[in-house]
Write a structure and sequence with these properties.
Elements lengths: L8 H10 L15 H15 L6 H15 L2 H9 L1 H5 L2 H20 L10 E9 L2 E8 L7 E10 L2 E9 L2 E2 H14 L5 H12 L4
Antiparallel strand pairs: 1-2, 2-3, 3-4, 4-5
Helix pairs in contact: 1-7, 3-6, 4-6, 4-7, 6-8
C-alpha cells in the first residue's frame, strides 16, 4: 500500500512561512533594486492575501506568483534531485504542474493567520551569483519571523530561487519530503505524482 506522508511539522510550518509574503509583481519590477523587488512583493501579499480574501482568490493568486516570480523549473529540478535526471521531459513537466498546484492550494489557506502583519526589508548582500535580501514579518506576539530571499538575475528579471525562514531552506525542505516519499514507495517517481494527485483530489 502506498504510504503518503509529508513528514515534519517543521517542514509544514516552514513552507507556510515561505509562502507568507509572496505575491505577483508588476511587469518590469525585476529591473529595479532587489530590495524594492522583495519589499513590493511583501506589501502586495499583506494587502491581497489576508484573511478577508476568499480561499479561491488566494489560491489563484499563488498560481500566478509562483509562475511569475519564482524559478519554477529550477526549484522543481532541485526538489526532485537525482530523480529529475531520470525523468522524461513529460514527467518533468507533469511534476512541475502538480507541484505548483499543490503549493497554491495547500498553503494559500494558511496565510489568513498572518494577513495584515507588518513586513519590512532589512538589507541585502551578494552571495556568489545570487543576491540575498533579508526581511522580517512582525508578529503581535513573539519575535519577528526572519526571511532571506535568494534572488537570481534571469535575463534582466529577478527570480526567487529559495527562501530561508528563520534559517530553514524551503528548497531543502521540499527536497527531503519528496525524496522520502519516492524512497518509501520503491524509488518510483510515479509515487510522487500519486501523492500530489491524492493531495489535490485528482483521480489521475
Amino acid at each position: 500500500m502506498m504510504r503518503v506522508s509529508f513528514r515534519s511539522p517543521l517542514a509544514v510550518a516552514a513552507t507556510t512561512l515561505f509562502l507568507l509574503v509572496a505575491a505577483p509583481t508588476p511587469h518590469g519590477m525585476a529591473a529595479q533594486d532587489p530590495q524594492q523587488f522583495v519589499g513590493q512583493i511583501g506589501q502586495q501579499a499583506i494587502q491581497s492575501l489576508g484573511p478577508q480574501v476568499a480561499p479561491a482568490q488566494r489560491a489563484a493568486h499563488f498560481r500566478q506568483l509562483f509562475s511569475a516570480d519564482f524559478d519554477v523549473p529550477g526549484i522543481g529540478q532541485f526538489v526532485l534531485g537525482r530523480y529529475w535526471r531520470s525523468a522524461s521531459p513529460e514527467q518533468q513537466q507533469q511534476f512541475l504542474q502538480l507541484f505548483q498546484e499543490y503549493i497554491a492550494r495547500t498553503y494559500s489557506d494558511r496565510l489568513r493567520e498572518y494577513g495584515g502583519q507588518p513586513f519590512r526589508v532589512t538589507g541585502s548582500r551578494p552571495n556568489g551569483a545570487e543576491i540575498v535580501v533579508s526581511s522580517e514579518v512582525m508578529r503581535q506576539a513573539g519575535q519577528p519571523i526572519r526571511m532571506d530571499w535568494h534572488l537570481s538575475d534571469h535575463g534582466g528579471n529577478y527570480k526567487v530561487e529559495d527562501v530561508y525562514v528563520d534559517g530553514v531552506s524551503m528548497k531543502v525542505t521540499h527536497r527531503d519530503e519528496f525524496a522520502a516519499i519516492i524512497q518509501n514507495n520503491g524509488g518510483h517517481l510515479d509515487a510522487a505524482f500519486a501523492v500530489l494527485r491524492q493531495k489535490l483530489g485528482m483521480t489521475r
